[in-house]
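Q: Structure for this?
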Amino acid sequence: MNTFIRLTSGLSRILGIIAALLLIIGVLVVCQMVFLRYGLNKSTSWQTEFVTYVLIASTFLGAPYVLLTRGHVNVELVPLMLGPKSRFILALFAYSTSALLCFVLTYYSFLFWHEAWVEGWTSDTVWGPKLWTIYLSMPVGFFVISLQYLADLLCLITGRELPFHIADVNEEAA
Amino acid sequence: MDPLLLGLLAALALIMFLLSGMPVAFALGFTAILFLIIDDGIGAFDVVADTLFGSLDEFALLSIPMFLLMGSAIAASRAGSDLYEALDRWLYRIPGGLLISNIGACGVFAALTGSSPATCAAIGKMGIPEMRKRGYPASLATGAIAAGGTLGILIPPSITMIVYGIATETSIGRLFMAGVLPGAMLMLLFMAWSWFYAYKNGYHFVEKDKHYSLRDKLIVLPKILPFLLLIALVLWALYGGVATPSEASGVGAMVSIILVMIIYRVWQPTVLWEIVRSATRESVMLMMIIGMAGLFSYMMSSLYITQGIAEWIAAMDVNRWQLLIYINIFLLLAGLFLPPVAVILMTSPTLVPIIIQAGFDPIWFGVMLTLNMEIGLITPPVGLNLYVINGIVKDVELKTVLWGALPFMLCLVFGIFLLAMFPAIATWLPDYLMGPVF
């Protein structure tokens, strides 16, 4: 089980690094595009579409890492009001509901990707890239978030981590 | 089923999932898919991935991570404290001058980073200890910074305005411009209150023993001027119609990283990596909410809920000002619990057509909406800025911060009234610079 948790967080981290690199690539391409368009007065072809896709890929691939590092905002009002036991039950509910959503999205975005791959969809622009390359980020991202949620659930049940990572006031003072 | 009843159920379900502590993005996504299935059965799944992808497939969205990157580069440097130092040197002779320069620093830093928590953290770390050292009560010092930080989402460039612009198909450049005067107005309101409070309670604090010569005043400027110039350039490029928000922000991000490297000698790979990392986290989180909110509004309109609500409100036959009051109360309540971006995405597709129908300007409404969201940032239960401040000055109780922020919250409410009475505060500048819409 430890191996699973470690592997999952390792995978999330790698995807997180890829997401950050994609963002850097996005910045560079935008600058290149601006230079071409306004500096050299040339027209640009693939850049607009490319950076849009880069950002989408960065979003889906970065999501597991953001979950790992508690970056997805949530409303902590009720969890903070509850006692430890009910908070644990609520955390079970919240984690498994989110996990369920991510599994469902993994499956359906896989189907979506698969269709684009089999049918050889391309985007209807001059550049016309193969769409499956971009769609791939969705099933991969959601699959790893699902794994990350499983790992979180395991940590929660075995008591390795506190529900919603909220430390009790007494513990914090100690 | 009746669309209104369905809408009510969807709202209740969403609130339940949100309160369970699920991430906001997933609560939106789960509710959306649940109601699509209720309406359409398993077949509804077929469109989910396509819709999710489609709601992110938008070039203008790129300006969000770019502005975030620009902000996180500046926030990682000492620009905040230099700015603070500069304003202090120029304003130290005014009663309550330190408070006023803190609020001013918040306003300028808000323009640089476009982020409320980053502004609170950067100025608060310097400003709050300094203010307390000079005898200002903790509540006033923390409240002023919490409030000053809210300007981050109003003064351009602002992430929430970008999101509003995309969601309602209004011009982002125009929205940015519309935020300038209301931002200045609020800054003045905050300053006026601080000055009044300091004056009334005898916190004059004109330091007799302290004197800054003109040389002292000028010597701090070179470090901050390049950043101010950068912001001015980015905004000029936007309003002059020279570049799109995504292009301007991309170049802005690049230049701000280079400036931080040159001026503050931030070149260590770990620090640079941290800049990119924090921008990526923030961007992924926001984009995920944007994607899932896209799914949510798809559900709302394919179940005719959006249209149902609009018809229902039209049938209520209230006058437009009553309508505006109801909408404001609704937004205020939503803003108390949810991050601004989520509120905008969930409500604006429904509200903006109603607002236009009632004869209001959508650009003006975007500013109004943002002011409501600002109140949410300094009001419990969520009040992000309060927690940020609480994290910086650990010896001040959250309750004290809250009481200190309360008068500033009232300033915001007053600001909303002023904006409702004089819409030109928001619309004059964009109309003057870019010509009227029609």
